[in-house]
Amino acid sequence: MTGGAGFLGSRLVRMLEGLGPEEILIPRSRDHDLRRRDECRAVVKGVDVVIHLAAQVGGIGFNRDAPGDLFFSNLMMGTQLMEEARLAGVDKFVGVGTICSYPKHTPTPFNEVDLWKGYPEETNAPYGLSKIMLLVQGQAYREQYGFESIYLMPTNLYGPGDNFDPETSHVIPALIKKVLDAMVDGQDEMVVWGTGKATRDFLYVDDAAAGILKAAEQYDGAGPLNLGSGTEISIRELAELIVELCGFEGKLVWDANKPDGQPRRMVDSTRAREAFGFVAGTSFRSGLQETIEWYSRHRMSEG
Question: Cα(122)–Cα(103) distance, rounded to whole angstroms?
Fold first, then answer.
C-alpha cells in the first residue's frame, strides 16, 4: 500500500491488520521515490493487491504555488506504479483519486456520469487531472490486458491526525489551527480566505478507509465510484461551527480577494452503496469535535 503511513493510509492499515493478512508492505517516501519507474517496480514485486494512496497534496494556496510539481509528481507515481503492477502480475490495483477531478460547475450532487463534462476548477486542475489519469489508464488496461483495476473518488477528508501545516493543509485543519492560534494569542478577530459561500462535502477519514477496504474486497467494475457523506456545508457555516466548538468569541473577517475554489461540492455515493454497501456513518459535528480535541492535545504535547 503506497501512502500507508499517511493520514488515510494509517487508518486503512489498522483495518487491514484486523483481517490478518500474510503481510502488508508499506513503502515509505524516504526509501522509495515513486516518481521513478525502477522504484515502482521494486515496491510491487511479489505483491497481490496494490492500494495506491500516495499523493502530493495541499490546500488552495499550495495548489496555486506548485501546480507543476503537483501534476508531475502525481501523474508519474500513478502511471508508472500501475504499469509495473501489471507487468508484475498483480491481481488487483485500487486507485484512489480525488473529487477535484470533477468539472468546476458540476451540478450537485456530483454524479460519476458528469466526470468528463468540463474542466476542473482552475486552482486544483493540475492535481485533479493528474489523478484522474489513473481511471483512464485502468480502463484501458482492463480492456487490453484484462487487468483488474478500480478507481475511487473520496471527497474532502478530515479527522484526527490530519495535516495541520499551514503551508499545505486543507480547509478544516487550517481553520482549526487558525481559531486555536487566535485564542492563544488573545485576538479578537480572525481572517478567513474567500467569501465563505463555497460548499464542501466532508468525509470522516475512518469512513473513507472502511469504504476503500470494502471496495478492494468486493468491487470489480470499470466505472469510478464516489465516496462521500452526502452532506453539503458552506465554508462560512464550517468556520462558524469550528468557532462554536472551540469556544472562540472573536469575529470572523472574510478576505474576498482570496479564492473560494470550486463553488460547490457534494457527491452522490449511490453507486458505492449499491456496489458494496458504503455508508458514511460518522456525523459531521461529532467527527469535527474529535478532530479539534485531537489537535488540542497534540498542540499541548508539543509544548
Answer: 10
Residue 29 lies in a domain: yes
Is residue 28 a part of any domain in this protein?
A: yes
C-alpha cell at 55: 499523493
pTM metric for this prediction: 0.93
Residue 2 is assigned to a structural domain of this protein? no
pLDDT at res. 63: 86
Write the CATH number for 28: 3.40.50.720
DSSP code for 123: G
In terms of DSSP bridges, do strands 199-200 and 233-234 run parallel, antiparallel, or are they unpaired?
antiparallel
Which domain, by its residues, includes 103?
7-301
Dump pLDDT digits (tens) for 149-182.
999 999 999 999 999 998 888 899 999 999 999 9
Reduce the DSSP state of residue 136 to 3 states and report it. Answer: helix
152 domain residue, yes or no: yes
- State the total domains in the chain: 1
pLDDT digits (tens, 9 = 90+) for 246-274: 999 999 999 999 989 889 999 999 999 99
Which of 207, 225, 214 minimizes the C-alpha distance to 287? 207
Strands, DSSP E only, in the chain?
49-52, 92-96, 149-154, 156-158, 189-193, 199-200, 202-204, 225-227, 233-234, 251-255
Task: Name, in order, each residue with C-beta under 8 angstroms of 224's C-beta and a sequence gap of 6 or more.
Answer: 97, 112, 115, 135, 151, 152, 153
Supply the residues annotated as catalytic.
127
